[in-house]
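okkk here we go again. third time trying to get the flavin mononucleotide bound version out, last two times i messed up the smiles copy paste (missing a bracket lol). double checked this time i swear
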Amino acid sequence: MFQNQEITKDVFYVGVNDRQKHKFENMLPLPQGVSYNSYLIVDEKTALVDTVDIAMGDIFIEKIQSQLQGRTLDYLIINHMEPDHSGSLKLLRKYYPEMQIVGNSKTLDMVYGFYEVTGKTLEIKDEDTLVLGKHKLQFHLTPMVHWPETMMTYEITEQILFSGDAFGCFGTLDGAVVDENMNVDKYWDEMTRYYANIVGKYGSAVQKALKKLTPLDINYICSTHGPVWKEYITKVVDVYDQLSRYETNEGVVIVYGSMYGNTELMAETVAQGVAQAGIKDVIIHNVSKSDPSVIIQDIFKYRGLIVGSPTYCNELYPEVESLLSKIEIRGIKNHIFGCFGSYTWASAAVKRLTTFVETMKWTSAEIMVDEKQGLKKDNYQACLELGSQVAALVKSFKCDPPHCV
Ligand SMILES: Cc1cc2nc3c(=O)[nH]c(=O)nc-3n(C[C@H](O)[C@H](O)[C@H](O)COP(=O)(O)O)c2cc1C
Ligand SMILES: [Fe+2]
Ligand SMILES: [Fe+2]
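finally!!
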């Protein structure tokens, strides 16, 4: 029944859209959904590249069967074992018991580890090739471009890169599959949010992978989420390159927590100081209202970060603490930092924020504003000064290699 979309004459899109899941990894909201992309190459031998989330397993199998028209599936290439892509593996093995599962040694360990799937496998090493007929696949191991087993598969004849999660983004595919046939506007922000939250920690691995891929001529990038890139390949590679170098734009993100408005008023004042010093991109997030994935996205985008928190049970406000942990585990680099806080009897928030910036090894503004109870004149001025100090550092910032070039 299914008419699968053609990428090239023998390469078909057999992926699916997920419009039901609320949160990716049970954490990251999906206001525009997500696609799980899978590709079928029909040649003398047939090969499927990656699978989809098991929630869509039935439709996925039907799409494959529609295309194969009774032929068998010879190979399943696994670029990445995260369950949004490997989820239908066990089901596929039931339909195609003779299929050879193709992956590197780490992949094949996980095939058994996650699913106890056995049967024919083909273990490949970096730059090994597999001939399907006219089409010839070459495997490029790109460890930690999300997980240790991650690899990319390059189809040599038609110059198609099956890139796994790399170059992917949130957002369903609404009708068309290849970028030249759609308006791609909605995907750019979702690419940054996807990268920042999912791949963000692995900037140096992405840089290594990009260098490894440089010699390849690429007509299509077929990633596992979002559009197939043809027209926008240069832009997409640039986005990933910039993000993985932690290269930032001139702007300041101010994040605060506040129960009764004292810290919030300080945030407003700090923002005024930043703007008065000539920074136009000032983004304020109330940590209890903005989604953390959007805050992390903005932190990846802009060079300055100023965090404010009340003292809460001798600690940071818990929502602020949670955000700091999200920043720490991603090892975000190249930022200018400032902080402020509010307390009533014994201050703890600003001290914790100070240890945070030491851990991150970022440059910090000298001034830190710590107000007892409501914001008063002296500290009002100090908040303006904090904003302008951070702005000046953001403007004069030169980042150190290897993170910037
Ligand atoms: C649940 C709770 C716990 C608090 N714990 C502390 C504390 O340990 N030390 C302190 O000095 N103030 C503490 N405070 C007071 C707040 O830090 C202080 O009132 C601050 O100005 C609140 O800022 P906000 O108006 O931005 O919420 C606590 C307040 C609340 C509601
Ligand atoms: Fe992944
Ligand atoms: Fe994925």
